[in-house]
Specification:
Number of helices: 6
CATH topology: Aminoglycoside 3'-phosphotransferase, Chain: A, domain 2
Order of helices and strands: HEEEEHHHHH
Helix content: 55-70%
Length: 164
Amino acid sequence: MCFNLITEKIQLIEHVFVHRDFRPGNLVISRDGKAIAVLDFQDAVKGPITYDLVSLLWDSFHCWDEPFTQQMVRLYWTTAIGKGLPVPSTLAAFNLSLYWTRLQRHIRVIGIFARLGIRDGKLRYLQEIERFNNYLLSSTVRNDSMQPLTRLLQQITLSNSALH
């Protein structure tokens, strides 16, 4: 199924230590604007080199427009190449790695937010699921192998619309 394919593709991406919650809400700029501090290291693990960039650009609570995200992707990739980081040698291959990482991360976040909302009663997280569902839908339609996932996401969207 789709989840097996996503897992296979994620395993092909070079793994490094990642923060897993590298997002604007966990970044603090110093008063002089010369340094950035990263908060909340509870989830630092080894994962795809693309994970933190996906966390930052396709965030839980902020939406950036497509031109900005693509500009940041190019900047990150160029900088990573220059520093010898283990990213794919072409921007197209890097974007493909981002694609698979986005799918994996967004599915993970939807599950976490569902748990926080349903089990823990933090209902505000349920409202954020729609953002990730939309992220996934915008990604999955580009790949025929993800059509079963696309159909599932569309059903979830229709079900949620019926509830409101």
